[in-house]
Amino acid sequence: MPAGAIDAHMHVIGPFDQFPLSAKAQYKPFAATWQEQDEILCKKLGFWGYVVVQATAHGTDNRVVVDALEHMEGRAAGVAAITEDVHMDELKRMHRAGVRGVRFAFLPHIASETTPPGMIERIARLIAPLGWHTDLYFLPQNFDIMEPLIRKLPTPVIIDHMGRPDVKVPVAENKYFQQLLELGAKRNDIFWKVTSPDRYTGSARPEDWGVALPFGHELIKHFPGNVISGTDRPRPNMNTVIKTPRKDAKTGQMTQMPNDGDIANHWIWPVAHKDPAILKRILVENPRKLYHFKEA
User: Fold this and answer.
1) Across all residues in the chain, what is the average pLDDT?
2) Is 160 a catalytic site residue?
């Protein structure tokens, strides 16, 4: 890992006796406390810090995110989930803790209800004075709704998980992905999370992830200063996505979860063309355009 590397997409979940899941949660994820994430991501994988993205299973109760940020003492930033009735005092409190964005998910299998575009725009106006961004996670079938919204949002925009293109359709022939590239060319503050090869391929095995690499490479070619990446650890709700498990080297058992080191070595590194300069840009320089950390 380059010095100062940021995992720009991970989740802190639980402990459930302290931070219960939302009553509207559509799935029950594994717990992944900030202590566990710090141990795995920072002490073992070598990230300097990370971005805690509010898991949809925790709803709009952002206490789990704020708690993690307070314990990480400046080495973490956060992305919250809010509604438009949130009070500005609460936004300022989260801002002091390190929250720098708001996320909306348009996936019925993980979110019981989606936020109407008009409400997203109103929330974006609310957070814009704080310098926050709007993080959108959507599927190709949502593009007709998302495209006009993204054009007029008053904040920087993150398109989560590359917009979830169908990687079986090559980049040049992928009409939806070409539309994303055209959209990205229309404003210079759209950022791209090049994450989660297991989500695109349905496989926990790194040997199956190569088909998704051209999409990440295309984004880096067109928007080199706007691509970020991360592990998505602990990859909640992957049992609905993974079809091809892998064998765990330690237990010998088949598991639907990719190995965390494989995400770093066989996704993030080849996405960066195995070039240390590109890796530094993706993991060190670009995240700091959206998030603010206390530097070591």
Assistant:
1) 93
2) no
